[in-house]
Design a protein that fits this description.
Layout (H helix, E strand, L loop, with lengths): L1 E5 L2 E7 L5 E9 L9 H8 L9 H10 L3 E6 L3 E9 L3 H14 L5 H15 L3 H13 L9 H7 L5 H12 L3 E7 L4 H11 L25 E7 L6 E9 L6 H14 L5 H9 L3 E10 L4 E9 L4 H17 L4 H17 L4 H13 L6 H11 L2 H12 L3 E7 L7
Parallel strand pairs: 2-6, 7-11
Antiparallel strand pairs: 1-2, 3-5, 3-6, 4-5, 8-10, 8-11, 9-10
Length: 411
């Protein structure tokens, strides 16, 4: 991997010889919270809805005819525009990339707002999505990470074209990186090409106005419960979660291993074995650890018969407490490490995965070759570290979100 700095552009190059397709990801940092929930996602959709030279239908048809796959996605922290194409079409693909990123008209604003609202309404009909949405919105309350689908539904109509243009001007003056993986030109030719044709990708180290969540959370431990009444459900949807440190913390590898042991490794995880296999409480049960730029969320999830709500919640805490008091065996610890490392290797095989991952890591401030550093950190985790992680979580505030028929919500 090579980090190239040319005329103010940051370029990360993974030179993968003898691979047929090249991936180029353009990353832009968002350094302030959304004015309205959903505006960043709306902005991302509008980038593919026509430019000054091509309407949306023509653009989509030409990209398809030339086998150029384009994906533009926005999160609360960043925008990513990904282009995947045959090696010989590098110049052509980058012409499309430049046109999309520089010449989008944003004229289809009302149409895209209507489509977003329709998609959200359809998604929120799913009990699991509704419970998850409520859970995330509540646990991140007061922070831009609380901008969920339901909140977007409430605010998206307020977005004007001027708001979209403001977002556009902000990202053009933000921290950026171009991440490339493939069998491409040599680094000198590559850097000269982007310096000449993509000068708008010059990066700016702006100070982020998005706060760290840990900065204003209460220190004492307590449990808050949110209940959603929904009739005629065969399965209750339960989430319990904690706000925890993200990737730059010393706890990150420790919580990662803890999560794998508890519920992140599928069939072999403790939650799956204890709550599903032994107690028969659910078909689906898991834990997850989602890291964002400014915080992270560790959570449990189960879909269970409504009568088992209390038993399931007790099961969450029982397994977490057990891990906080008794270290995992050497075999279980090693298995968790191998699972984590194996997943990382599995999801970093293609050029598209590599370009995406390395660009994200760099924009998040994790540096180059972070995957290698992460593997070393995971291998260094010991049993005491897992105990430390479990005790840390147990002593933090948690939120429970339960969706079930009303008669089962008196737990």
């Amino acid at each position: 991997m090579e980090h190239i700095i040319k005329n103010g552009l940051d370029i990360i190059l993974n030179d993968k010889k003898n691979t047929p397709r090249t991936s180029v990801c353009f990353y832009f940092a968002f350094d302030e919270a959304e004015k309205y929930s959903g505006i960043y996602g709306l902005f991302a959709k509008l980038l593919l809805q026509g430019t000054k030279t091509k309407d949306a239908k023509t653009l989509a048809q030409e990209l398809e005819n030339n086998c150029i796959d384009v994906s533009i996605k926005a999160k609360q922290d960043y925008l990513k525009a990904s282009f995947l194409f045959l090696n010989e079409d590098f110049d052509l693909a980058m012409q499309y990339a430049k046109d999309i990123l520089l010449n989008s008209t944003f004229d289809e604003l009302e149409k895209e707002k209507f489509k977003i609202k329709a998609e959200i309404n359809a998604d929120l009909d799913n009990p699991r999505v509704l419970a998850s949405d409520t859970f995330v919105r509540k646990i991140f309350q007061g922070h831009c990470y609380s901008n969920t689908c339901s909140k977007t539904l409430e605010e998206i109509d307020k977005v004007t074209k001027e708001d979209i243009l403001y977002v556009y001007n902000k990202i053009l003056n933000s921290k950026k990186v171009i991440s490339i993986a493939g069998d491409v030109k040599n680094s000198n030719e590559l850097s000269d090409y982007f310096a000449l044709n993509f000068d708008f990708m010059k990066t700016n180290e702006t100070e982020s106005k998005i706060p760290l969540l840990e900065d204003f959370l209460p220190k004492e431990s307590n449990v808050e419960i949110v209940k959603i009444s929904k009739a005629n459900l065969n399965q209750a949807q339960l989430f319990q979660g904690w706000i925890v440190p993200s990737t730059k913390s010393d706890l990150y590898p420790k919580i990662s291993v803890m999560n794998n042991i508890l519920g992140g490794s599928g069939l072999s995880s403790r939650l799956f074995v204890e709550l599903r296999d032994k107690q028969g409480l659910a078909y689906t049960v898991r834990s997850s650890y989602e890291a964002l730029f400014k915080s992270a969320l560790f959570s449990f999830y189960i879909a269970t018969e409504p009568k088992n709500i209390r038993k399931s919640l007790d099961g969450f805490i029982f397994e977490l407490t057990k891990l906080a008091k008794n270290p995992p065996s050497d075999d279980e610890l090693q298995g968790a490490k191998e699972n984590l490392i194996g997943r990382l290797e599995y999801f970093s095989q293609t050029n598209s995965q590599l370009a995406s991952m390395e660009g994200y890591n760099y924009l998040a401030g994790l540096g180059l070759n972070y995957s290698d550093k992460f593997i070393k950190m995971i291998n260094a985790v010991n049993s005491d570290d897992v105990l430390e992680a479990a005790n840390y979580v147990l002593n933090k505030n948690s939120l429970i979100c339960a969706l079930a028929p009303n008669e089962y919500l008196n737990f």
